[in-house]
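G., before I forget:
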Amino acid sequence: MSSHPDLKQRGERLHQRLLAGSLTASSETAELFLRPLIKSLTGEFKQPGDPHLIDSAVEDALINYFEHPEKFDPARSSLFIYLRIRARTYLLNSLSQRGNPNKVVELREAETVQQVEEQNEPDAEASLVSRAVQTEIMQQVQKYITDPLDLRIVALMVEGVRDTATYAEMLGISDHPLAEQRKTVKQHKDRIKKIIERKIRRGRRKRQ
Amino acid sequence: MSEQELYAPLLALARRLCNDPRYMAYVLAAYKAQEKLTDEELELELGMLPLLTIRLSLCKRPDAMSPDFAAHVREIADLTLLNEEKLAHILRQVDTVEKLAGRPSSLLSPEVAASHLQAGLLAAARDRDEESETEEQPEDEEAKE
């Protein structure tokens, strides 16, 4: 299985943002890695007994990482591999404790096998799986927004693009003063949010 | 990939974070309890897409006392297509009630908070298909500002 650079680079960017105090990085990281991690471990542990053990182990790995991102060293492995090692260790501990309460796998020990894990780098399919949430969000948005320019703006927003310049270029106002660009971009974003909110509310009220 | 496969793992993680005051999952559950909102009423108030409600739950909670509060709220609001003012209001309210109570706003036990959020998000996810059947065809966008 060959490593997929897209997933690796996105993981590194999210890691830097988490370290820098981004409040959305945890959510974006979960969307990116949760399903590929579960899929990867399910491939290795085909019958773990309790089917929720793998899910719980991956959740533990992510929650632990969100609280201690500094423990991950990007020089040693990709974020996917790091999270997989953690999740695998939690899973092995759960399995061991069920069979033998005294057998616990040390996390530090597990991390020394990092190189072995390189073979489990996510592939292109995992990258597609990680984008499934994004795709689904855009499909839902298209029920409420039809204007092509608005849809492109929404796509940037839900991808977490923050810089005004990207939006300004899309809106054709790159040559305007920065303060004006910011104001116009915000107006567009707010208008789009209002349309979606109003239409969702209208849809829900109809059903009540 | 089925809808269940897509939603379920993220929803399970959000449910776990309902117990942790550092996450938005906790804030939403606390707000719902404070306002005595049903799942449907909370959905109506937020006017959010189901997946984006889960995305919001998995974000970390902005500190209402931080000088970066507005920027943090904007960042989360943009990523979840949520109205900034609404998000700021919810955060401030939950924060105020916590401070008045002198503790994290657990008007509800962690188990109850978790079950509230789970029920709400599952209902939102279920609604998705219904919406596509009952919602009118996309209208032309409202007049641009």
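Residues 3-106 of chain B form one domain. Residues 110-134 of chain B form the longest helix (25 residues).

More on Monday.
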